[in-house]
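Hello,

Following up on my earlier ticket. Below are the two sequence lines again, exactly as submitted.
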Amino acid sequence: MRLGVLFSGGKDSTLALHLAAEKEEVVCLITIISKNKESFMYHTPNIEISALQAEALGLPQITKTTQGEKEKELSELEDAIAEAARKYQIEGVVTGAVESVYQTERVQRICNHLGLWCFNPLWKHDQKALLEELLEKRFKVIITGVFAYPLDEKWLGKQIDNKLIDKLVDLQQKYGLSPAGEGGEIETTVLDAPLFKKKIEVLDYSVEFKGNSGVFIIKQARLVSK
Amino acid sequence: MILIIDMNWKKDSLGFYEFVLPIVTIAKTQDECIVKHFLEVTNQDLSQCDSVILSGTALKDTATLSQPEKFIWLKETEKPVLGICAGMETIGVVFGMRLIRCLEIGMTQINMLKENPLFCGDFKAYSLHSCCNEPSGDFEVWAKSTKCVQIIKHKIKPIYGVLFHPEVRNPELIKRFILLNKS
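Thanks for your patience. The regenerated structure is below:
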């Protein structure tokens, strides 16, 4: 089955892509760039890096920019998926949704409307196990957004490793934080993954932090050999 | 032991992670589980288990509905069976119920019509279906949404069907089914 992956470049959509590619044929990426930094639907920091990730994966990418108005962004997502169906003959869509009924029901509706299959291979999976799976599969993932107390700017730019997973699980117990950032507490960017033919090297970045949230913005990056 | 039947269109499919694994995770907290694809269920699997759960599938996956002969065992078994979404639709087809178009996607209000040991009170649940069973002779209707039948129970056998996906927001329902039928 030819599939398109809703791709943000974060850990969940990249892991979903890997699981999908083990079972079916992934033929393109579909990326929505939201101008609204608090979009309900889409991962936002460093979304522009997804073009570099697409190149590393050797996959074509359909990109649409939205102003991020709550329901209008859905018609833009539907346009992007319809374009993927036309250009790359996809028969289904894959998402990295884990817990969010809000996200998944909207993508399900769009797929149903377009007559496409919809797969959410990370759906309801244990969040700590998902983080550990990233390490087992040798993903290189950095934290590029923190949006909840007590996460502070020290977390920005950190690579996910066993020590960091332990800390996140500890914060879950103390503060009810979701360890994989499913409640939008954390955003991530994947710099390397098994299906990347090259890896991403960050050449320049800046950190913005205000109140209880901050972002690690990749200003310049390139692909290098693995 | 619980026999969880993978209702996806093929064995080892991409739908497994989404529709089977979450049920296994919940069931494992109560008892041992074995998972079999619907084309590979044997009489031995059925005789060894205490209860059976039929998984749901992707919205476009209707493979089990066109192969009711693979579920003929449902008519003979004495074991408790819980069919989820495509699982319930398949139970309906095996017992001669008609399938009608009915689309529900997202959180849905479930209204209980009959007091019972498995499900109590009205609640909200996650729906993902494009058709539903039209109730007939052998089954009682235990709950409905505004659009369609949501829970059915065979009048004599311990065979239950839920059209919504309890593994998403109502895991206690799966646990209660297992506990009630654990030997």
